[in-house]
Design a protein that fits this description.
single chain; 340 residues; mainly alpha; 13 helices; 0% strand
Length: 340
Amino acid sequence: MIDTLVEAFVALQGWLLDRLIQPPLLAMGLGSYLEMAFDGIEFFLCGVLQISAAYLLLRPLEALRPIEVWRDRQAVRVDVLYSLLDRLGIIPLLVFALLAPLFASVDSWLRFNDIIPPQLEDLFPSLETRPLLSFVIYLLILDFTEYWRHRLSHRFRWWWALHAIHHSQRQMTLWTDSRNHLLDDLIGGFWFAVVALLVGVPPGHFIGLLIVVKTIENLSHVNARLSFGRLGELLLVSPRYHRWHHALDLPGGRQYRYGCNFAVLFPIWDQLFATQYRGQAMPACGLRHGPLPESAAQSGFWRQQYEGLCALAAAFRAHSRQVQQTSPTGDYGKPNSHAR
């Protein structure tokens, strides 16, 4: 059964390449991009499957056991648009188009200097016969670095100005995961790709890793009273665990002044680095104040992108003033906090 489905998937992928993608690429003299286009079609089809599965499995949970119920779901519809742009490859394609020249240069430099990032299988040959174990280890490595990317996006004022769009949503649902500023997506795509390059993630694993991460992120944002149980919530980020990360009012304590529960997949990173909060309540979500206007919770896609750019400009202006006011002793004042 599985083999039949895989064969059907590959056949559809090949048909789309032959009938829709290959003719215009060849006509424009871009035949060298055919292999890349083949991978892009795989990403698109996997996105269709992933977003369909998320809707069919998670949307009923939201309807049956909602944490919150809203009459007006306009803000949710904006997140659906974000999800379609992200999962079906529009935003990743934009990120790739912007980053491709840079990575081509890096790849050429590495090859010219005979530098080939080692894969886990090179360091541990026994993993050659254990592809699932290899996949899990790569997933752990990438999730560890994603924890730090996420944590830093709350720590730096300029980065928080962009990432705050994700947190501005007060009607959090399975679609909220993709709600983000395009510049923040660009930074995140660059971060993920660089780490994957440095640790030598095999091309065959890369799309699979992205799909696993995106699926669990859908689940962690779901508007449903869903528990993984005492043990399960220690092993995987749950909706309740991640809801505290989006809480309108963060828990008290200096360790939470920039936020809590930054882990994307595995809560162990929050536990190791003292950013974990295990509250049992289901708090209200959103931003209490700044750096975005109150309208960001309800505004449309392009308006949110504009508001993010305005907040970014304001962050740079504030930093410039702070530098000008710096004392000779180098006192830069109190840390930037985004108390919500």
